[in-house]
Design brief:
Helices cover 29% and strands 30% of the residues. It has eleven helices and 21 strands. The strands form three sheets. The chain has a nine-stranded antiparallel sheet with strand order 1-2-4-11-10-8-7-6-5, with helices on both faces. It has a nine-stranded antiparallel sheet with strand order 13-14-15-21-20-19-18-17-16, with helices on both faces. Strands 3-12-9 form a three-stranded antiparallel sheet, with no helix packed on it. Strand 7 and strand 8 form a beta hairpin. It is globular.
């Protein structure tokens, strides 16, 4: 994001620019009113669809007009020529969590950036226009620069400047809304505008709260590659379902951790797994900082576009210069079937080249969700050395892996990183995990958005250390080796999940 533009925006909302504060507050109040109404309206404003509910743009204009007069009128099939397309899904879930916790998660930038790092690449508060007593976010208003990413680095990040406003609407409801500041700080190059979006949290019954998320934006999707196009344009990539499923996962994760009785096992190991996941999501991001280059070394139709980038030493705890390669492919199987295949240690040797011919054993695991397979695991890859029937013949561990796998209603991930056995032992004995290097590889698994549950998009991320690599030099042998791993892994996964006799 342009530093000079950030600086100018920060100055404009700083102390002494009262006129801007008033304009932003007026815009935020109007956005909150719109969000509160959109969250409770049904048909004809909202149509049911695979992604939950999707906005009827014609009805929207009739009912709300324009919150921001600088936004163009929403599309008309005959007259609309704006290159920005509308995405507007809505999703509702019921959670046994107090509204204050959701509100704080969204309004506290450190928590927001951390917990929602599966979608948020960057979030920076440029100015606080209104604040209340410590811990009270009623009426809080702040201006932010935010960058969102999808679950594939083939899809460019979305960037915007917005006002985020929180208000207690009545004794039983809270709202948190975002709205773009394009009208106050115009930029002709804008390719992403956030109309009033956010969540309404309403008291339901029996300790449950109804959380409704509206995600309403205009965006230029012309650069999205064909393999990801419908997944993005249908609202699956950045939609309400993604945001709500992340909130649900965070709630389930904390609930499961609280009932554990092994603090040494859970605390530091989960901290390390959390760092691994955030590094993995950083590698999924197509930002200006992540400079990806196209790789094409074969005519494989399924691997029609792979990309590679350089990772500098110590970036995300990387122990040295490294390379990351990624590819997104379609696999004709459900996301659940693929997730089960990838997270199961018993099938790992079928797709992991480094585990071929070896035995993979799970030695520790921590459940962190309601879905079977949602867990943090320690895996040991072993060479079976027994040449007799004696139980005293040892097995040799050739690699120890830290793995986290989880599945939500919107997406699934299986992420892993090699970790020294001595580091694992240190962590399990209460040692600090802060200095343990993690270099994650793994998979994001999502429905393709077009076929329901029949075809999935799988993004493969593979990372290796390479002391000869630099931002301007990717050694040819490393590129070729990584590309071979990606293509062979893709073929093995497809064979494993499509052939019903190969799932044992």
């Amino acid at each position: 994001m342009d530093f000079e533009r950030e600086r100018n925006l920060f100055v404009s909302v700083s102390v002494g620019t009262e006129a801007y504060k008033i304009k932003i507050l007026d815009l935020a109040i109007a956005a909150m009113n719109e969000l509160a109404n959109m969250a409770i309206e049904n048909e004809p404003l909202w149509h049911p669809c695979i992604a939950g509910r999707i906005l009827n743009c014609a009805e929207y204009i009739k009912k709300f007009g324009q919150v921001d007069s600088h936004f163009p009128v929403l599309p008309n099939a005959e007259t609309y020529t704006n290159p920005l397309q509308t995405e507007a899904p809505r999703e509702t879930r019921f959670l046994a969590v107090q509204p204050v916790h959701i509100v704080e998660l969204l309004m506290n930038n450190d928590k927001y950036s951390h917990v929602l790092s599966n979608m948020v690449s960057k979030a920076k508060v440029l100015g606080v226009l209104s604040t209340q007593a410590q811990g009270d976010y009623n009426g809080a208003l702040q201006v932010m620069a935010i960058e969102f990413h999808a679950s594939s680095p083939l899809v460019r990040n979305r960037k915007c400047y917005l006002a985020r406003y929180c208000r207690r609407l009545n004794n039983n409801a809270w709202g948190v809304v975002d709205v773009s500041l394009q009208s106050l700080f115009p930029n002709p190059l804008t390719r992403y505008r956030r109309r009033p979006s956010g969540c309404l949290i309403e008291r339901f019954r029996d300790g449950l709260y109804k959380v409704t998320w509206v995600e309403h934006c205009e965006v230029d999707n012309s650069s999205v590659p064909e393999v990801c196009r419908y997944f993005v344009t249908s609202g699956h990539a950045y939609g309400a379902k993604q945001w709500l499923s992340t909130l649900v996962r965070q709630h389930e994760r904390l609930t499961h951790i609280r009932v554990r009785r092994d603090p040494k096992l859970q605390s530091n190991l989960l901290i390390l797994a959390d760092q691994m996941m955030r590094n993995f999501w950083r590698n999924l991001s197509f930002s200006r900082k992540n400079r990806w280059m196209l790789v094409s070394l074969s005519d494989d139709e399924n691997i029609n576009k792979a990309i590679i980038r350089f990772v500098k030493e110590k970036e995300g705890r990387c122990p040295g210069p490294a390379l990351v390669m990624a590819a997104t492919i379609r696999i004709p199987a459900s996301a659940r079937r693929i997730f089960n295949f990838l997270q199961d240690e018993n099938s790992r040797s079928k797709w992991d080249i480094l585990s071929h011919g070896h035995v993979v054993q799970q030695t520790r695991s921590i459940s962190n969700g309601c879905v079977p397979g949602n867990r943090v695991s320690i895996l040991e890859v072993k060479v079976i050395l027994r040449i007799s029937n004696s139980p005293e013949d040892p097995d040799r561990t050739v690699m120890t892996l830290l793995q986290e796998s989880f599945s939500t209603s919107a997406c699934s991930y299986v992420t892993f990183a090699p970790v020294e056995a001595s580091s694992i032992n240190m962590i399990l004995n209460g040692g600090d995990s802060d200095n343990v290097p993690v270099m994650p590889s793994g998979f994001s698994i999502l429905p393709d958005g077009l076929t329901g549950d029949e075809v999935s998009l799988v993004t493969i991320i593979f990372q290796i250390l390479d002391s000869a690599a630099s931002p301007m030099c990717f050694p040819a042998h490393s590129v070729y080796s990584m590309y071979k791993v990606i293509t062979e892994t893709a073929k093995a996964i497809t064979a494993g999940v499509v052939d019903p006799y190969n799932m044992g």
